[in-house]
Amino acid sequence: MNFLEKYGDLIVKVGINIQPGQTLVISSPIETAEFARMLSIRAYEAGAREVVMRWIDEQSTKIRYDWAVHEVFDEVPEWIQSFFNQYAMKDAAFISISASDPELMKHVDPKRISRQNKAMNLALSTYRSRMMSNKNTWCVISVPTEAWAKKVFPEANTKDAVDQLWEAIYKAVRADWKDPIEAWKDHQKSLNLRTDFLNKNKFKALKYNNSLGTDLSIDLPDGHIWFGGGDEGPQGQVFFANMPTEEVFTMPKKDGANGKLFSSLPLNYNGNLIENFWFEFKEGVVVDFGASAGADALQELLNTDEGAKRLGEVALVPYDSPISNQKILFFNTLFDENASCHFALGKAYPTCIEGGESMTPEELDQAGANDSLIHVDFMIGTEDLQITGIRQDGSEVPVFLNGNFAI
Ligand code: ZN
Ligand code: ZN
Fold first, then answer.
1. Which residues neighbour 62 within 8 Å (Cβ) at sequence distance 6 or greater?
2. Cα→Cα distances 77→74, 81, 84, 204, Å
3. How many CB atoms lie within 10 A of CB 156?
4. Which ligand sits nearest to residue 248's alpha carbon?
């Protein structure tokens, strides 16, 4: 098997772990059609009932943003809603190929994008909440496109840039290992050691410090659970929602963040690059923020709803990992978030608290889980990041020393 076949195999068997008789929905940019077709064949070979293709053309999306009448950005047609919600209700698996041009939407009115996203997230709330509580299996992966590769490797010609991005992706997902499927089993074991340590300590708070100026304390709710690597699907099948994944994560308490937090990598938010940004939190809410570029897009993001100004995820990623060791800025959250400790603004994963999957929205709120139409990860990890865990009795335990796990 060549790398490409190994990668396809890894996605179908380990990433989405397709089950015989299951329907698979693949969302793919038109530029990555060839890879998506290869995936669909692999999925049929593994017993898929049907593979449904949803093609995305970001250039057409941009033309629509530039030209369409403004009301359409508050609308989502019924058929799009039915498409996602119905396949989700029928236990389909969802693969999405994330490969956008990081700068395509630079000159698009950020208000149009945020209105469209808000309308979309509302319309697809059934689908979204099923994904976020693992009632469906899903997997986000990446394949190079020319525009994306040129942004990551601006010095190289287009062909070389694409080849280099492929190589970087293979390394990041361990497809360059002799037996990638075995490699993922070992990877899972090392993630388990970390989640076991964190779950045993039941920290009530984490304190973050680094030389960028981050000085933040976040509370963790009672009964929070740390996860990493594979998730369990509805039939007990293990799947990986992200490939690659290096993080262990849980939910913070929605009103427990206090202090200053500085980003360590730019954030590509819907084709807008937000750079050198920071937040100041008071009792969980962003009370002040700044950015050297993309401040408008960041403002729109925070204005989505009440929960968009609060944290919904805390994730720990060592500075020393197969992604961050490549020292490449991918301009794609799937990779950059797995190279760096991060947080997410917006909705918390209900599975990150004991019994969360079966709690009502009110019960989740009471337990300290944040809710929002958005969930956007942003990176804050640095080589000198220190994280200290505070136990229930007030004693302190080093969790991160100089950017890496202290355990
Ligand atoms: Zn994350
Ligand atoms: Zn996240």
1. 104, 105, 108, 271
2. 10, 7, 12, 44
3. 15
4. 1
What string of pLDDT tens digits covers the 407 residues of the chain?
Answer: 788 889 999 999 999 999 999 999 999 999 999 999 999 999 999 999 999 999 999 999 999 999 999 999 999 999 999 999 999 999 999 999 999 998 899 889 989 998 999 999 999 999 998 998 899 999 999 999 999 999 999 999 999 999 999 999 999 999 988 899 999 999 999 999 999 999 999 999 999 999 999 999 999 999 999 999 999 999 999 999 999 999 999 999 999 999 999 999 999 887 788 999 999 999 999 999 999 999 999 999 999 999 999 999 999 999 988 898 898 989 998 999 899 999 999 999 999 999 998 899 999 999 999 999 999 999 999 999 999 999 999 999 999 999 999 98
Residue 265 CA, chain-centre distance (Å), reads 15
Domain ranges of the chain: 3-172, 200-226+244-405
Ligand nearest to the Cα of 317, by number? 1
User: What distance in angstroms lies between residue 109's CA and the mean position of ligand 2's atoms?
Assistant: 25
CATH fourth-level superfamily of 3-172: Thermophilic metalloprotease (M29) (3.40.1830.10)
What is the distance between the alpha carbons of residues 137 and 16, in angstroms, rounded to a whole number? 6
| Residues 144 and 35 sit within 8 Å (Cβ to Cβ) | no
Give the Å distance between the CA of 140 and the centre of ligand 2.
Answer: 12
Exposed/middle/buried for residue 25 (C-beta within 10 Å: 0-12, 13-18, 19+): buried
* Cis peptide preceding 180, ω within 30 of 0: no
Rounded CA separation 217/314 (Å): 12
How would you classify residue 225: left for phi > 0, otherwise alpha for psi between -120 and 50, otherwise beta?
A: beta
Rounded to an integer, what distance in angstroms lies between the CA atom of residue 336 and that of residue 20?
33
Q: How far is the CA of 216 from the centre of ligand 2 (A)?
A: 19
**Could you tell me which residues are beta bridge partners of residue 27?**
54, 96
Distance 55 CA to ligand 1 centre (A): 26
Q: Which phi and psi angles does 281 have, rounded to 5°?
A: -110, 140
Other residues' Cβ atoms within 10 Å of the Cβ of residue 126: 15
* C-alpha span between 389 and 250 (Å, rounded): 14
